[in-house]
Specification:
The chain is of the alpha+beta class. It has one domain. The protein contains four helices and two strands; from the N terminus they run ααββαα. Strands 1-2 form a two-stranded antiparallel ribbon. Helix 2 crosses helix 4. The longest helix has 24 residues. It is elongated. The two termini are about 30 Å apart.
Length: about 90
């Protein structure tokens, strides 16, 4: 069964869908914060939510330290977001 574009947009903007997305993102962010703290990192992890231009809702978990996520010659690779995403 195909749904039309307007119904798709309404579903994506609905409160239950947005709440579910936010709940999962907050769980992932909490786990990423715990991993960062346990590994001695200093990254700040936050959740960003919104609606894409095409009408689809989105929630992103973001770190302010790509150096800790990917590592450098002088920064240990913690990969908190990637590890948390696999666990949640």
């Amino acid at each position: 069964m195909a749904i039309n574009d307007e119904i798709w947009r309404q579903v994506n903007r609905s409160k239950p869908v947005r709440q579910a997305e936010k709940r999962v993102a907050e769980q992932l962010a909490a786990r990423a914060r715990a991993i960062t703290a346990a590994e001695g990192g200093k990254a700040k992890i936050r959740v960003e939510a919104g609606i894409r231009p095409g009408g689809r809702s989105r929630v992103n978990v973001v770190s302010d330290s790509p150096w800790e996520e990917y590592g450098t010659e002088s920064t240990k690779r913690i990969r908190a977001l990637g590890r948390a995403a696999r666990e949640v």
